[in-house]
Amino acid sequence: MKIGIIGAGFVGRAIAKLAIAAGHEVMLSNSRSPQTLFSLKPMIGCEIGSACEAARFADVVVIAVPLTAISALPVSELQGKTVLDAVNYYPERDGQFEVLDGRQTTTSELLARTLPGSRITKAFNAIPMTQLESDGLPAGAPLRRALPLAGDDIAGKNIASELYTAFGFDVVDAGPLSEGWRFERGMPAYCVRMTKEELTAALAETRR
Ligand SMILES: NC(=O)c1ccc[n+]([C@@H]2O[C@H](COP(=O)([O-])OP(=O)(O)OC[C@H]3O[C@@H](n4cnc5c(N)ncnc54)[C@H](OP(=O)(O)O)[C@@H]3O)[C@@H](O)[C@H]2O)c1
């Protein structure tokens, strides 16, 4: 699979490394220029490009930027694309978003509104990237960690599930995109190590 990643920080790099190890092709991009990512090509084995190029390159695009940067994403290049949304809301970094503070919507629904022609699946949000790289275990291992996803697009959910599994994690489907609040920052399932059974129960019991 060809994976384009917009954002080449902790999230972009961790997913790139794991995806390449799992046999996928990856292009990383950032807001400045591919020149600023020059060393990543030999170090990680990925392609580098602009955000537009990463979107055009990809079968699936991972959005790995701060929430404030979603308004700068290449909307037309992302038209029709399967998009995995790793974005989280940190007011101390992103400023206050009243609609999120008031729980009127979710970060992924904001992204879906920004990218109306794309199919959004919320994934890779509820784990620190150091742990994404360290916690993976083979399928069936006792205490294998599970990760949540949410979305309305079956194909996108299947791709996110395939990547979670390849990276060493069980999968818990939290439901449609509008249910993504269940593993947003501050919720019990956010960035806490849980098995599939524990995560399923935590998501079900979470109150908004
Ligand atoms: N760190 C984690 O463990 C973790 C885990 C799960 C989810 N998240 C979430 O994932 C997102 C990324 O986190 P991070 O830790 O990887 O952040 P980060 O290390 O600060 O990296 C952010 C990246 O986004 C790029 N970027 C910013 N604006 C952009 C734009 N308009 N177009 C293209 N690229 C742009 C930056 O490139 P430039 O430097 O060129 O601007 C940088 O490469 C955040 O929403 C975060 O909350 C983080």
Describe this structure in words.
There is one protein chain. The chain has helices at residues 10-21, 40-44, 51-57, 91-94, 98-101, 107-114, 129-134, 154-167, 196-205; strands at residues 2-6, 25-29, 47-49, 60-63, 82-85, 119-122, 146-151, 170-173. The longest helix is centred in the last third of the chain and has 14 residues, at 154-167. The chain is globular and about 45 Å long. With 208 residues, it is of the alpha/beta class. An eight-stranded mixed sheet has the order 3-2-1-4-5-6-7-8, with helices on both faces. The chain has one domain: Rossmann fold (3-Layer(aba) Sandwich). Bound molecules: NADP nicotinamide-adenine-dinucleotide phosphate. NADP nicotinamide-adenine-dinucleotide phosphate binds at residues 6-12, 29-32, 51, 64-67, 69, 72, 86-88, 90, 124-125, 128-129. The site of NADP nicotinamide-adenine-dinucleotide phosphate (NAP) has 26 residues, from helix 1.
Strands, helices and their partners?
Layout (H helix, E strand, L loop, with lengths): L1 E5 L3 H12 L3 E5 L10 H5 L2 E3 L1 H7 L2 E4 L18 E4 L5 H4 L3 H4 L5 H8 L4 E4 L6 H6 L11 E6 L2 H14 L2 E4 L22 H10 L3
The helix-and-strand class reads alpha/beta
Helical residue percent?
A: 25-40%
What's the overall average pLDDT, rounded? 98
Shape, per Cα inertia axes: globular
DSSP E strands, number: 8
Bound molecules: NADP nicotinamide-adenine-dinucleotide phosphate
**Could you list the spans in which at least 5 consecutive residues all have pLDDT below 50?**
none
How would you sum up the major sheet? 8 strands, mixed
User: What is the CA–CA distance across the termini?
Assistant: 36 Å
Strand order of the largest sheet: 3-2-1-4-5-6-7-8
CATH architecture level-2 label: 3-Layer(aba) Sandwich
The CATH superfamily bears the name NAD(P)-binding Rossmann-like Domain
Number of domains: 1
CATH fold description:
Rossmann fold
By CATH reckoning, the class would read Alpha Beta
Rg value: 16 Å
Strand content: 15-25%
Tell me the number of helical segments per DSSP (H or I, 4 or more residues long).
9
